[in-house]
Amino acid sequence: MTKKNFSSFLYNHGDRITLLKRVLAYLGHPDQNFSIIHICGTNGKGSTSMMIAACLENLDQRVGLFTSPAIGQQTNCIQVNGVEISKGHLNDLFMKLKQVMAISEFHDAELSDFEALFLASMLYFSEEGADYVVLECGLGGELDATNAVTTTLYSIFTEIGLDHLGVLGNSLEEIVTTKSKIIRPANTTIIAPQHSQIINGIIKREATIKGARLIDAAKTVIIHSQNIGQQLMVDYQTSQQHGQFQFGLLANYQLENVRTVIAWLIDFCQSKHLTNQISDLLNHALATINVPGRFETVNKKPMIIVDGGHNLDGITAFANTVNTIFPHYNKLIVTGFLKDKDYQDSVHKLLGIKQAHFIITEPDNVDRRLAARQLQQAFIDASGITYPVFKRPITAIKAAINAANRQSKLLIFVVGSFYLLNPIRTYLINKEDKYNGDTK
Q1: Residue 134 CB-half CA count within 13 A
Q2: What 3-state DSSP class applies to 403?
Q3: Do residues 322 and 51 touch, judged by C-beta distance below 8 A?
Q4: Which of 224, 207, 265 shows the shortest CA–CA distance to 51?
Q5: In angstroms, what CA-CA distances link 435 with 313, 394, 407?
Q6: What is the pLDDT of residues 72-97, one digit of tens each?
Q7: Per-residue burial over 294-325, b = 16 or more CB atoms within 10 Å of its CB, e = otherwise
Q8: pLDDT tens track for 329-378
Q9: What is the spatial distance between Cα 43 and Cα 350, in angstroms, rounded to a whole number?
Q10: For the chain, which domains are there?
């Protein structure tokens, strides 16, 4: 039994949360067997989730981690202390869910892929005896499958921007309102440093209504960061303490995410009356951390970095990071987007990268991919330059590697949809090309 037995997308198709709550109740409320740290936002959810999970593991806790979309295999979405669920076990849980939905109580109601994956994770984390579960929202907030859980210890909001317009809402205010509904009564809610007081105001209002304790991570300040090879040495300051730690994530935007992690860690240790030094915990947990698909180096000769900057905010952060870390290198950037993203403004941001040329391709999503020729035209309109097009991501990365082999000190980047990153990343790591289609 595989995930193909579930529907591809059912978000906002009727009252999904009530259905999922009923399924969880029928399964014995597995979500109540551990404490949940619920993470929601537009950008930075995955990185923040993985950093918090790493900190909890460093505190000798048994930690479940649920993230999406999958980077590599689907099993990557469900992990306990860094070990992902096996394919066989995941398929067994899918089979169990199919059997549950077939009983008369549920009248053969459908589950989406994501809903089934979420429910399977709750069962798995309960079976594995997790102490804490770091639960990353999928598409949204209020109607997101993960919001079917009974209660949460923390609601953490990463950076929120305009994404999934028309699905989550038609304005920033509507999107933030939708996301704010993950806050649970009397929990602790943490807001990442935001660029808009509108965002803060809406989340604070919802926290007040729910009687949740509120922490603003903007009060955590990065005083200084210095590159020391493959790591950063980070100095931070809060209203309560200051410290220093080594940080394994070089992208500029990760410094914003780690501010949220520091705010959470200080509060968590205080609430649990732990006497551990925060700097030591951060150093041990984050010095060598790697977040797949987020400014990740997947090949060294030539150097290839992949980044899932799939919306305007993500592309902006990517461009700023590349210009900061590699200002004087020639760059070849493989890129492709989904057609429901703001790709035209993203093109303008990419063209602001110094000494960069581009190879254009298409993500591995037949229904949602932006045609490579259409993206090529956006580059022509913005720059007057006709960059080469390859329909298949693997052909595109092979062309980039060939170019790097002819030109020394040429850096290769892959940026855009995770549906673009996945096939390229899998090919580079495993040297496996699962595609059999056209080569152009």
Answers
A1: 28
A2: helix
A3: no
A4: 265
A5: 31, 8, 28
A6: 899 999 999 999 999 999 999 999 99
A7: bbbebbeebbbbbbbbbbbbbbbbbbbbbbee
A8: 999 999 999 987 789 999 999 999 999 999 999 999 888 899 999 999 99
A9: 18
A10: 3-286 (3.40.1190.10), 296-430 (3.90.190.20)
Locate all alpha helices (DSSP H) within 272-406, ordered by sequence: 278-286, 312-325, 343-350, 372-383, 393-406
Place of tokens 């229904």: 367
The arrangement of strands across the sheet holding 242-247 comes to 221-227, 232-237, 242-247
Name the DSSP class of 362: -
pLDDT tens digits for 264-276? 999 999 999 999 9
Residues β-bridged to residue 332: 357, 412
Tens-digit pLDDT profile for residues 224-249? 999 888 899 999 999 888 999 999 99
3 state SS of 237? strand
Question: Which residues, in sequence order, are CB contacts of 206 under 8 Å at separation 6+?
Answer: 177, 180, 181, 183, 212
Would you place residue 311 in the very low, low, confident or very high pLDDT band (cuts 50, 70, 90)? confident
Q: Tokens 């931070």 — which residue? A: 236
Write down the residue that tokens 């989730």 correspond to: 49
- Which of 231, 208, 235, 230 lies closest to 220, judged by CA? 235
